[in-house]
Amino acid sequence: MEQAEVEIGSYRARSRGLYDPADLSAAGDITAKWTAISERLHADRAVTVKGPTGHVGGPTSLFIQPNGAGFHVIVLLATGNDGGPDGRPFFLAFDPDVSAATEARRTWTTKKTIGDTATKVSAFTHADAIAHIKLMLLGNDPNSFGPLIRKYHFETAEAFPAISRAGTGQ
Questions:
Q1: Dmax of the chain from CA atoms?
Q2: pLDDT digits (tens, 9 = 90+) for 14-36
Q3: Where is 150: in which H helix or E strand?
Q4: DSSP secondary-structure letter at 23?
Q5: DSSP state of 162
Q6: Using CA atoms, how far apart are residues 97 and 100, in angstroms rounded to an integer?
Q7: What's the DSSP call for residue 161?
Q8: What pLDDT, on a 0 to 100 scale, did the predictor assign at position 10?
């Protein structure tokens, strides 16, 4: 598999391709699925995870439909433990939904993005766009990431809820 190197600001990451695990809501050994995900993350591979918007997306996501239908995709980047080896396990994830959390909404909303986002964002200069992307991903604090990179505390012994698709009766 080809290896790609990506540089954002002073951060450099090597990618050996995404890993897309089997449906985390499907019957089967959920522990084995999470073990495979952890193995991929420890091998420096990102993992795409799909789930119901209310389960995988942020609490204020605009993608949460009133009838509960819809799905969301995040990309797991790493795993760790809060407070060291004996702490609560977490997954560090890239969540591209700028509406998913209050901090992401606040950072995304500028004088240039209020209103019709597609029109406003296209008015960004190249330098503005790069600066805003860096802010959303890397933030301003050298000890943390921006609001699109978040910790997720998944219960790895339980399957995800099934994804509900509008109009399909599923």
A1: 49
A2: 445 667 777 788 877 888 888 88
A3: strand 149-152
A4: P
A5: P
A6: 5
A7: P
A8: 43
For residue 148, give the 3-state DSSP assignment.
coil
Cα dihedral: 6, 10, 11, 12 (round 10)? 40
Residues of 6-19 as b/e, b for ≥16 C-beta within 10 angstroms?
eeeeeeeeeeeeeb
- Say whether 122 sits in a helix, a strand or coil: helix
The radius of gyration of the chain's CA atoms, rounded to the nearest angstrom, is: 17
- CA torsion sign, 42 to 43 to 46 to 50? negative
Distance CA 155, CA 141 (A): 29
> Cα dihedral sign for 22, 154, 91, 156?
negative
Q: β-strand 4-8 against 149-152: which pairing, if any?
A: unpaired
Q: Is 48 in contact with 28 (CB distance < 8 Å)?
A: no
pLDDT at 12: 46
DSSP string, 130-146: HHHHHHHHH-S-TTS--
Q: Cβ neighbours of residue 103 under 8 Å, at least 6 residues apart?
A: 147
Q: Which residues pair with 12 in a beta bridge?
A: 7
One DSSP character per residue, 28-79 reads S-HHHHHHHHHHHHHTT--EEEEEEHHHHS-TT-TT--TTS-BEEEEEEEEE
